[in-house]
Amino acid sequence: MEHDSEDLTQRVEAHDPALGLRAAGALHRLAEQVEAAATGHARRQGWSWEQIGDALGMSRQSAHTKHGK
Amino acid sequence: MFDQFTSSPFVVVVTAAREEARQRGAKRMGTEHLLLGLLHETGSASVRALGVDLEAAYAALEELDREALHAIGVDVGDLAPALSAPARTAPPLTSTAQAVLSQAVKNAKARTRDIDTVHLLHVLLDRKRPDPAAELLARLGVDRGVVRGRLQERGS
């Protein structure tokens, strides 16, 4: 694990800072896409907002506010 | 702040930019979204001077994201990293986007009473990397000098 994070630091530092910052933004946008799709899937499978919130590391209320229709 | 310009092409562009930022799930509306907003005005002096279209800009943003991810060793396959789940409301402006808009309005007032989107384009053309709009223009292969020349021809 320690080794991996060193490797990541090296990769980031091998490039212009703009690249690493853009990668962080892109990962964040991707995570949002995955979260929205997975939440929709879970709801259709009968998961409660509480279960979804637990899985996403947020409160039931936050999960519902963010993804509820 | 821009209420007095409602229905001007300028406001149409800013509205399109905010919608782009919302649709793309951006946390903030940045200068790259202002550029996308300009590109929405198909056939406008700004778009003709730029010589690129919205589709090319989307593709360029996608490419930039892919390259950035690749640089840190992430391969997202056929997923679209430049996009995100659309937000419910338009995000707030980055401080740079705010400054760019203020500058465009100021320049427009100094020259004419007409808030033209061309003033916004001029300010965006002056941005330097790592500004997101500057990155996007560079990736699109836009030659700033050529674009400024085209704008000038139009103005004279």
TrEMBL record, chain A:
This is Helix-turn-helix domain-containing protein. It comes from Streptomonospora halophila.
From TrEMBL, chain B:
GO terms for biological process: proteolysis. The keyword Repeat applies. Gene3D superfamilies: Clp, N-terminal domain (1.10.1780.10). The keyword Protease applies. Coiled coil: none annotated. Keywords: Hydrolase, Protease, Repeat. GO terms for molecular function: peptidase activity. Residues 1-67 form the Clp R domain. This is Clp protease N-terminal domain-containing protein.
